[in-house]
Amino acid sequence: MALQPGRSRGGSLILKKGQIMTRNKRRTLALAGCACLALLGPVSPAGATASGDRWAVVNAVGTLARDKGASKVVNYSAGNYQVVFDKNVRACGFHATLGNAGTAIPPNGQVSVSPVQGSVRSLFVVTQNSAGVPTNLSFHLYVGC
């Protein structure tokens, strides 16, 4: 798409009042004093996630506190969880962090996440205390697709 001052024709971009936008205004980028601009796609409202993204907040006992697209959690043993989602997450990126479902201070320790062999909808999460001992700890899991 080419940048056009003033008016837009077809799929071209226009510069208007310090913003770059398309004719249908689905894509908007503010000029921030940058000499080069890239149009990466539609801009989401603050706090919104992409439609393919999934996430789960899991209590230490292995229950879902809240989620988007998670269907169940299995706690196999101390600190070993399987989180199952409603769609294939194999080609996505995963991020886990220790944290509570409420407002309490989050637990100390570490968490790791990996795909589950043989299941394209599941992720394996391991939580450990600060000494590296597998321990049931609450966590937040984000899957970006």
Word description of this protein:
By secondary structure, the chain is mainly β. It has 2 domains: 1-43, no CATH class; 54-144, no CATH class. Helices cover 0% and strands 46% of the residues. The protein has no helices and 12 strands. The strands form 3 sheets. Strands 1-2-3-4 form a 4-stranded mixed beta sheet, with no helix packed on it. The protein has a 4-stranded antiparallel beta sheet with strand order 6-5-12-9, with no helix packed on it. It is globular, with a radius of gyration of 21 Å.
What share of residues are in beta strands? Answer: over 45%
Rg of Cα set: 21 Å
What is the total tally of β strands? 12
Low-confidence stretches: 6-11, 25-48
Q: What is the end-to-end distance?
A: 25 Å
Helix content: under 10%
Principal-axis shape: globular
Strand order within the widest sheet?
A: 1-2-3-4
Task: Give a short synopsis of this structure.
With about 140 residues, the chain is mainly β. Helices cover about 0% and strands about 45% of the residues.
Task: Write the SSE topology.
Blueprint: E1 3-5, E2 13-16, E3 19-22, E4 28-30, E5 54-58, E6 64-68, E7 70-77, E8 80-85, E9 93-98, E10 110-116, E11 119-128, E12 139-144
Summary tags:
4-stranded antiparallel beta sheet, mainly beta, 145 residues
